[in-house]
Amino acid sequence: MPAEDEYQGRYLAHQRRKAAVLAQILAERHSGRRFADRPVGDGDLEPLLDAAARAPSSCARRGVAARVVRGRDATALLGGLLVGGVGWIHRAPAVVLLVADPVAYKAGDEVRFMPYLDAGVMAQDLMLAAAAAGMASCFVNPAVREPNRDFFTARFCAGGLFCGAVAVGWPWEES
């Protein structure tokens, strides 16, 4: 095996540093359902939404979009509609809804599962970006109470297929 030149050595050291940073982010990543009373601005969300938009998707369709919901009234409404958000989601400064365009999933009955897989990858990338930014996040499953489904879809999804959500905010710090 040939000896490593100085350029290759720097490159390999850089790769090891990147791997260490990713390993640290993965180790620190956890679900946070308590958030500080600190707003999440557009600039705070931008790298998270960029990470979600760049996430791999089935057949490179990019059939799932991220829609940001903010404001106490809107997040409280989500808390009443989403089974997984009961009792806590209203405290999130921002909730990113993952909404699929069913037209993007045409082969057979793949609309039953592929949008959820794509949304899961998006959610994971978004949550890793949140951890890298020092933010807390938590995935919210796509279950909506049966009597509220039509209202939820009309209010938040506009013809799309709701595939889950990620609540995002600055971490709660106990005094």
UniProtKB/TrEMBL annotation:
Lineage, top ranks: Bacteria, Bacillati, Actinomycetota, Actinomycetes, Micromonosporales
Query: Among its keywords, does the record have Repressor?
Result: no
Q: Which residues form the Nitroreductase domain?
A: 27-69, 87-141
The transmembrane residues are 76-99, 119-140, 152-172
* Lineage top rank: taxon: Bacteria
Q: InterPro entries attached here? A: Nitroreductase, Nitroreductase-like
Keyword Repressor belongs to the record: no
- Which family is it part of? Belongs to the nitroreductase family.
From what organism does this protein derive? Mangrovihabitans endophyticus
- What GO molecular function annotation could you give as one example from this UniProt entry? oxidoreductase activity
- Cite the CDD domains for this sequence: Nitro_FMN_reductase (cd02062)
Q: Keyword annotations for this protein?
A: Membrane, Oxidoreductase, Transmembrane, Transmembrane helix
Annotated protein name in UniProt:
Nitroreductase domain-containing protein
